Amino acid sequence: MELSGLDYSLIFGFFAIVLGIGIYVSKTSGKNSTEYFLSGRNMPWWILGVSMVATTFSTDTPNFVTDIVRKDGVSSNWVWWAFLITGLLTVFVYAKLWRKSNVATDIEFYELRYGGKPAKFLRGFRAVYLGVIFNIFAMAGVTLAAIKIGGVMLGLQPWETVVYAGAITVLFSAIGGFKGVIYTDFLLFFVAMAGAIGAAYYCVNLPEVGGLQNLITHENVANKLNIFPDFNDKEILITLIIIPLAVQWWSSWFPGAEPGGGGYIAQRMLAAKDENHAIGATFFFNIMHYALRPWPWILVALASLVVFPDIASIQTAFPNIPADKLGNDLAYSAMLTKLPSGLLGLVLASLVAAYMSTISTHLNWGSSYIVNDFYKTTIKKDASEKELVNVGRISTVVLMIFSAIFALFLQNAKQLFDIIIMFGAGTGLIFILRWFWWRINAWSEISAMIASGIISILFKLTVVGKIMFTHKDETSGLLVEGWMPEYAQFPLVVLITTIIWLTVTFMTQPETKETLFNFYKKIQPGGPGWNKTIADAEADAVQIVTDTQPWNVPSGILAMLVAMVFIYSIMFATGYWIYGETTLALTLTVVALSAGFILTRLWKKIRASVF
Questions:
Q1: pLDDT tens per residue, range 20-30
Q2: Measuring CA to CA, how many Å separate 65 from each of 51, 70, 202, 330, 566?
Q3: Mean of pLDDT values over 119-137
Q4: CA–CA gap between residue 472 and residue 464 (Å, rounded)
Q5: Contact 282/52 with Cβ under 8 angstroms?
Q6: 413-423 and 442-461 helices, crossing angle to 10°
Q7: Gap between the Cα atoms of 313 and 300, Å rounded
Q8: Alpha carbon of residue 143 to chain centroid
Q9: Rounded to whole angstroms, how far apart are CA atoms 226 and 572?
Q10: What's the mean pLDDT in 590-602?
Q11: Which of 104, 373, 408, 541 keeps 20 to 30 A from 200, CA to CA?
Q12: What is the 3-state secondary structure (H, E, C) of 465-478?
């Protein structure tokens, strides 16, 4: 594959624009830490929503989707489609609460909700745990995808991709701060979306594939098209539907899909002009992320099964790829080598855009934890604003270096997905309940975090994960001993972790009245979980209830359910239109329109207006 002058012009022109934006906003973004990490808290919903979508449009996502579709079909996407529930709960319940908190980061929330030394410890530890360790994991997965793209499409060695892509990204991230990230995300989204759609259209119409009709009837593809898994296969049903929809979405912490909101999603909600803009941004993100974006990637993945039916065919076509980087996820990059001049440059620019958007967000977000929740609270409490910005820029560079090194030792993005999901198992329910139940305390979170990590290590990385258990053999009908299946480990980790943190909660002292009064007075969460605190405040003649409106969480949950129908219907209708199943597609389109109409009526009960 050779790049033409047009391809190079598109790629380098894109780089120049991105760096130009970073330099242009560098003066204002470096004024103080609030500007550097939150852009002065005056951002509109539409630019924040686009930024959220652009951030999750990373280089590892199409590789990840390709990997699972080639192995287990379209239905395997339920492992991440289920997180839509988490996202919509954030939209209709938590976005408003986050913006009202007015904290600088979601980690700062700990000293708003809890008090004393446990809260200080939790804030500092989580800043390092999430901002450094887990953040490096996430960025390494994105960089690994860039390494594979660079190797397949440009013939680059892994270290070359890391140096070239990382240097430019860290440069504009460090100088531009959050405003630079947000502004470039707006450009990056449209470039990335155009590249993904263009690549899907061309790959489906390759001579080897023969168009959409030939694709969906091809012997390598026909058994991969089902949007829902085979309900007769118990293991697949449990793994792809029951666990994600019944357990995973509320119980596990995952970047971009944190129960109750968090991470870089919370960072954007906190940067919004007001509560309505925070709601609008997160809702727009969920529509784009789930309803409209997956299908271009899925189509390329399906087409790759025709052109590169197995890993051996990929290895034959690209013999220079290191053996430890070979996998089904390489098929996405392999398909892109078939693109013609011009479109190839656009797609490469879109992949660069996806990489830069995700990495720059993670760098700024992780750096905000290091500065605001560790350096400023633990190292130097009286640090000047200029010093905080400089520490933010230095930490940005350091995070990039460590994540790039880690990426060189990874094989595929699914490894990290599984590790992160397991390490957060059982903690999600706390993130949901801590806003609405006074009894949750700092020790609840500390115990859940430690328990989840230790138990996950025992199950995932040691022989304990292969606990002997007795089950009924389907063939003989007899009780036999065997090894615990992997799909059973996740809910077991959730159960054990939940029991531990609930036990710790009731064995430790609740937060002080003063802490609970201050939290309630500022946030006004409402609900029966705060009845005792309200009664205590009345007994002490302290006024903490200032919001006389009815509790709108039930309306928010109802809106969440209707929005689920709305977005899933759009997603599935799109798939069935592509498959040519007109009756199903038309029915789901009508369902989506009906749900959308109902949603607009419900939304009026939750907020006045997004605009």
A1: 776 776 666 65
A2: 21, 8, 18, 11, 23
A3: 86
A4: 21
A5: yes
A6: 140
A7: 16
A8: 16
A9: 10
A10: 92
A11: 408
A12: HHCEEEEECCCCCC
Distances from the Cα of 289 to the Cα of 160, 332, 554, angstroms: 31, 19, 25
Which tokens in the block code for residue 220? 């390598």
Mean pLDDT of the chain: 82
Q: What is the DSSP letter of 83?
A: T
Tokens of residue 407, six digits: 């990426």
Q: How many residues does the chain have?
A: 611
pLDDT of residue 610: 36
Q: What is the pLDDT of residue 32?
A: 65
Q: Is 312 exposed, middle or buried (0-12, 13-18, 19+ CB in 10 A)?
A: exposed
Question: Do residues 332 and 63 touch, judged by C-beta distance below 8 A?
Answer: yes
Rounded mean pLDDT, 352-365: 80
- The pLDDT value given to residue 377: 86
Tell me what the mean pLDDT of segment 466-485 comes to.
53
The whole-angstrom separation of Cα 164 and Cα 168 is 7
The residue assigned the tokens 């025992």 is: 458
Enter the DSSP assignment of 322. -
pLDDT above 60: residue 466: no
Q: Partners of 472 in the beta sheet? A: 479
Q: Which residues contact 460 (CB under 8 A, 6 or more apart)?
A: 418, 419, 422, 489
Q: What is the pTM of this model?
A: 0.82
DSSP 484: P
Q: Find, among 328, 23, 571, the residue nearest to 563 by Cα.
A: 571
Q: 479 - beta bridge partners?
A: 472
**Alpha helices (runs of H) in 90-134, residue ranges in sequence order:** 95-101, 110-113, 116-128
Amino acid at 295: W
Q: Three-state SS for 12?
A: helix
pLDDT digits over 244-303, tens only? 777 777 777 666 677 888 777 888 888 888 888 888 888 988 998 888 888 999 999 999
Which stretch, 150-159, 255-264, 335-344, has highest mean pLDDT? Answer: 335-344
State residue 369 phi and psi, 5-degree precision: -65, -45
180: closest CA among 35, 42, 53? 35
**Kind and range of the H or E run holding 421:** helix 413-423
Q: What residues contact 312, with CB distance under 8 A and at least 6 apart?
A: none
